[in-house]
Amino acid sequence: MIDKINQLVGLIEEFAPRTAAEVEEFRIKILGKKGELNAIMEEFKKVAPEMKRELGQRINQLKNLAQERIAELKNNLAQSASAVSSVEDMSRPGSCGTLGSRHPISIVRNEICDIFSRLGYTVAEGPEIEDDWHVFSALNFPPEHPARDMQDTFFIEKNPDILLRTHTSSIQVRTMERQRPPIRVVCPGRVFRNEAISYRAHCIFHQVEGLYIDENVSFADLKQSILYFAKEMFGEKATIRLRPSYFPFTEPSAEVDVSCNLCGGKGCNVCKGTGWLEIMGCGMVDPNVLEANGIDSNKYSGFAFGMGVERIAMLKFGVKDLRLYFENDVRFLRQFDSAL
Ligand code: PHE
Question: Is 305 in the pocket of ligand 1 (CB under 6 A)?
Fold first, then answer.
């Protein structure tokens, strides 16, 4: 009986079928009702009791080996069969890669720039790693002034004069250095602030800021430009309101609210019942800023504004958690395919 078992083990190990039918035939021969294994089991009944323990184990091993080997061979043949058929079946539909789409932040940033380009603005860009002058000093933040705390800054440890820009107003300074008025630019870009990450704040986000300098630029021009932007971005029904605010680089300064486009101004949980949503800061460029950048503040005046792209995108698309924009989950991103 031992011999018979050993013989079957050898047979199973060497078995090399070419088709699934051969495997099935083999399975019936070994494991089938009238197969080899059952024949052995019949014989096993007659074995002397002291032999049963060892022989029983051997038979079990044989059974396991046969089952595993047959399952493995079946699997291998099924895989190679599908591989062969996919090569051979020329009528099978082709497989195409999924098409990428623009990130919602890029979509909204481009839309903001497009809207202002229709008002004659050009796009300016600048470095993300900046010096103190372009981010703070040229914008009328005196050294050690508490206004610098409005934007928690990442400094480079070895040289605190070098930092990650906290706003793209630094590009406006670079533009004033390069260009004489009239100036009309929008400055999109990534900015960095040392903020705890939550559903409404992140340490990296995107801004579009704008600067308009010419003779006789007034607050009325600012208000009308922002109103035009709000209507283009949120729809013809959108209205705006301005609340007094403070920025070192503008005087007077204001925060801009747009009427809530979800409830139409009636009040809902997104606008916290007020009917208004804050979208940007703005103001008339402080004469100190013009002078610091070599522009005659008696001849020229201007306005500036700045907004967070994530915030505008959240309001436009009704997204409640800002972190979603940074996770790159395709199930989230795919929803914006049609917003292109
Ligand atoms: N730079 C400001 C900020 O990042 C926004 C702003 C720009 C406000 C221009 C007024 C004028 O918070």
Answer: yes
pLDDT computed for residue 150 by the predictor: 72
Task: Please write the tens of the pLDDT for every residue from 293-337.
Answer: 999 999 999 999 999 999 999 988 888 888 999 998 988 998 887
Residue 14 has pLDDT above 90, yes or no: no
Are residue 35 and residue 135 in the same domain, yes or no?
no
Question: Among 247, 253, 290, which is best to mutate for testing ligand 1, by the most ligand atoms less than 8 A from CB?
Answer: 247
Residue 90 lies in a domain: no
At 44, is the pLDDT very low, low, confident or very high (cuts 50, 70, 90)?
confident
Tell me the DSSP string of 212-245: EEETT--HHHHHHHHHHHHHHHH-TT--EEEEEE
Centre of ligand 1 to C-alpha 287, Å, is 16
Ligand 1 geometric centre to CA of 7 (Å): 86
Q: 159: domain CATH number? A: 3.30.930.10
Question: Going by DSSP bridges, is the β-strand pair 301-308/129-131 parallel, antiparallel, or unpaired?
Answer: unpaired
In a shared domain, residues 174 and 277 = yes
**Helix or strand (DSSP H, E) at 330:** helix 330-333
Q: Do 34 and 125 fall into the same domain?
A: no
Atom nearest to 253 CA in ligand 1: 10
Output the pLDDT for position 281.
Answer: 97
- Closest ligand 1 atom to residue 306 Cα is 7
Cα 326 to ligand 1 centre (Å): 23
Residue 264's pLDDT is 80
**Same domain for 160 and 18:** no
Per-position DSSP letters for 10-56, written without gaps between them: HHHHH---SSHHHHHHHHHHHHSTTSHHHHHHHHHTTS-HHHHHHHH
187, containing H or E segment: strand 183-192
| Backbone dihedral region for residue 308 (phi beyond 0: left; psi -120 to 50: alpha; all else: beta) | beta
If asked whether residues 74 and 131 sit together in one domain, one would say no
